[in-house]
Design goal:
Layout lengths: L2 E4 L7 H10 L4 E6 L2 H13 L2 E8 L2 E8 L10 H4 L8 E5 L9 H17 L6 E4 L14 H9 L3 E5 H6 L10 E3 L1 H10 L2 E4 L1
Helix pairs in contact: 1-2, 4-5
Length: about 200
């Protein structure tokens, strides 16, 4: 019989910590949580440790059933599992340049750094960032906003980076954060957004 971890209503990162502790004692676990962000964090913990997961939606939240597999390793807490995510909006932000606005390049760079930092501080955050044209430079090694993009990614914000743009600018091997995407996925994401904002 599975060990039950009732983490409903508990704040992050308690569901992850309680599940990790249970994984050290049992081979079958059912973790009960309230929110989807809690599901994602617990699921990542289990899958990284080599456990099989099965999600069951319930009226009061979710039940995540975990089963230890032969190749399982010690479950470890990592920073992305212990950082509490802020709520995400349904909005998508498209970044078409590594600068914000037109005119003075230096001013545009300053404004972009300020904008990206602000996204890490406000709630709700956008659900997805789409980077294309020279906006892909924001996601490469050495970018002045790389730390902010990493924080957003850890908080659950999806980051889609145009693969054609990376190739054209010859910087695909420098990508440091985000998922290489294509125009079909980018168009689908923008059209499905509750609110799309282009910067």
């Amino acid at each position: 019989m599975a060990l039950v971890v009732d983490a409903r209503g508990l704040a992050c990162p308690q569901p992850v910590i309680l599940t990790r502790n249970a994984m050290r004692e049992a081979e079958e676990i059912t973790t009960l949580v309230t929110g989807r962000d809690q599901v994602d964090n617990v699921q990542r913990l289990a899958e990284r440790a080599g456990w099989q997961t099965r999600l069951e939606p319930r009226p009061d939240g979710y039940a995540l059933h975990l089963s230890k597999q032969a190749q399982a390793v010690e479950p470890e807490l990592t920073p992305d599992l212990t950082v509490c995510s802020a709520p995400l909006a349904s909005s998508v932000v498209a970044l078409t340049s590594d600068r914000m606005g037109r005119g003075e390049n230096e001013l545009g760079s300053i404004l972009m750094r300020s904008f990206m930092y602000t996204l890490t501080q406000i709630e709700p955050r956008p659900r997805t960032l789409v980077l294309y044209n020279t906006g892909v430079r924001l996601a490469i090694q050495g970018s002045p906003v790389l730390d902010d993009l990493l924080k957003l990614a850890v908080a659950g914000v999806e980051i889609l980076v145009c693969g054609t743009c990376l190739g054209y600018l010859e910087i695909k091997d420098q990508l440091a954060v985000g998922e290489v995407s294509n125009m079909y996925s980018i168009a689908e994401t923008l059209l499905a957004a509750g609110n799309a904002v282009t910067i």
